[in-house]
Amino acid sequence: ILWLNPSQTIVGVVYPVNLSHESVLDSFDRLAEAVASVDHNVIVIADVRSTDKLPANLLGKATMYAQHDFWTLPNLWLHAAISDRRSHHRMSEIITSVFPAFATLKVFDDLEEARIYIEETLGVSTAA
Fold first, then answer.
1. I need a surface site. Which of 15, 19, 40, 107 has the fewest CB within 10 A?
2. Could you give the count of Cα atoms lying within 13 Å of 104 in the half-sphere of its Cβ?
3. Tally of CB atoms within 10 A around 31
4. Is the overall model pTM greater than 0.85, yes or no?
5. Are the C-beta atoms of residues 51 and 86 closer than 8 Å to each other?
C-alpha cells in the first residue's frame, strides 16, 4: 500500500496473483489505516490485473467484507479497481447492487480510464 500523490488523496494497492480471503482482509485493514490517517477524502486504486482469480465463494463472503471498517470510513471517496476481466466487472455490478456498503466501488479497464474518471468526474489531480 502506497500513497500515490504528495497530498495523500490517492492510495494504491496491487493485489497478488493468488488472491485469498486473508489477503483481501489484510489489505482492507491496511487501507483502512491509511484512509483513516488523513482528514480529507481519499481515493483507493486497487490493481487486480495480475490476479488469476477472485477468492472462492466471494459472494458468500461479501457480507463479511461489507462489514469491514474500511467500507464505512466517511472519507473513502472512491475505491477504483483496475481490471480488464469481464468477470471482475460483473462481480462488481452484483455486489454493488446488493450491498450498499460497496457504493464507492467502481471497476475500470485500465489505469488511464480510472485517471480520466478521477480527474474529470471528481476533479482530483492524479499527478504524482
1. 40
2. 20
3. 24
4. yes
5. no
